[in-house]
Amino acid sequence: MNKERLSKVVSQLEKNNFEVFFAENLLAARDIFEKNILNGIEVSSVSYADSITMKSSGVLELIRTKTDIDFIDTFNPDHSWREQINQRKKALTVDLFLSGTNAITEAGQLVNLDMIGNRVAALSFGPRYVVLFVGKNKLVKDLDEGFKRIKTVAAPLNAKNHPKLKLPCQVSGICHDCQSPQRICNTWTITEKSYPKNRIKIILINEERGY
Q: What is the pTM of this model?
């Protein structure tokens, strides 16, 4: 993917009221997060949703060093499932929420598909600010390509990362529109614009990261 296309996507996202930062690599993304975002807003509480790219950047470890920030851990392995759910409800009230997105269209729309909806809920409403870490492989032409990417790439790979779920896509690598009670594809969202302006901040990384 050339920089001209990336630049056009950044411009479109900004027209849609997202605040966008461009990072050449994952290390640069972490630095941008610390210097340009975390140090630039008042933050007393932080939480997150699942995102390989975000986790790989090291920002969660950075947050944990901040003794003045209340860190709500939504994936603590020592917590029961019910306790994790309660933490995810609390996460909707934080100052800063961290995650990723499944796809970004050339028109500057965010496309996402969730299992229980905590990620897309926070993206839509609740946290004061949302920061998304996004590899360039998430860029798609339009909504149809975004839907296809999620069903044929993101969702099956995400399912494989959770072997206990026992889903057909883990074996075939494609969506079966299954009826499993553990189905991870339940709630779609399309975010056309950020409201208020700059509430959703996107760090677009010039690397293929996550799925």
A: 0.95
